[in-house]
Amino acid sequence: MENDYKEAAKYIAERIGVKPETAIILGSGLGGLADRVKDATKIPYGDIPHFVNSTATGHKGNLIVGTLGGKYVIAMQGRFHYYEGYTMRQVTFPVRVMKMLGIKNLLVSNAAGGINETFHVGDLMIIRDHINMMPNPLIGANDEDFGTRFPDMTRAYDRELISCAEKIAAANGIEVKKGVYVGLTGPSYETPAEYACYGRLGADVVGMSTVPEVITARHAGLRVFGMSVVTNEGYHFADDFVNDGADVVKAANEATEKMTLLFSELIKQI
Question: Is the distance from CB of 223 to CB of 132 less than 8 angstroms?
Fold first, then answer.
């Protein structure tokens, strides 16, 4: 695998000609933020050696390199999911490639279902911690070139970046929540009993991504900041309630402006 990482990193480096220090992974419906990157170079995933294709709704499948917040960034316009049938190595492959490119900071975003009954559609939640209910991406032989066999996850989400984001939100009149994200395999949405179960475990929102990438990033020594957009209310089971993928993407798209402002200002201060 090491040669695969190197080959992908070499290809990207030759295409972009710059050395960004911050990467962004954009989830369902949030790819519009990548459209705000200036002087952008777009590289379809299919062009990058050993990258797989993103098949999920709302994931365009491009690597965007340019400036945001006045600094060079790499933005993944769509991610890879375990439920697409990919291995965890494939799901997290881009994170290690970005590490090889010199990335020091990783900002992750996702669309998530609200479990906390004070959360509503359209709310932004800073991820302060997570619960992993997927296979751990580090299972198997450890690659010492990236990190230790048993990486610490006590502070998976960087506290300084969280504090900085909270200040940015307050200064711009943007209300943000803070809570715990639980990552499940999907692709089926959760049952009412499952929503209630994970709520009792301490989760505030639920989704089908992010956690494998964060674990891999922390293993590689990257600083991580995460944000969820609440796109449905998983605690609200009226007679006519259904989880709908199109509604999730629509709600995420509507959060693009606020997400762009927060991420841009955060990147300025990293």
Answer: no
Q: How far is CA 252 from the centre of its chain?
A: 13
Give mean pLDDT, residues 147-152: 96
Q: Is 89 exposed, middle or buried (0-12, 13-18, 19+ CB in 10 A)?
A: middle
Where are the extended beta strands (E) located within the chain? 22-26, 38-44, 62-68, 71-77, 105-114, 124-132, 176-183, 205-207, 223-233
User: Do 107 and 225 contact (CB within 8 A), yes or no?
Assistant: yes
Q: Report whether pLDDT(242) > 80.
A: no
**Buried b or exposed e, range 46-56, using 16+ CB within 10 angstroms:** eebebbbebeb
* Angle ∠(148,78,186) on CA atoms, nearest 5: 75
Reported as a single tens digit per residue, the pLDDT across 49-105 is 999 988 776 557 899 999 998 999 999 998 999 999 999 999 999 999 999 999 999
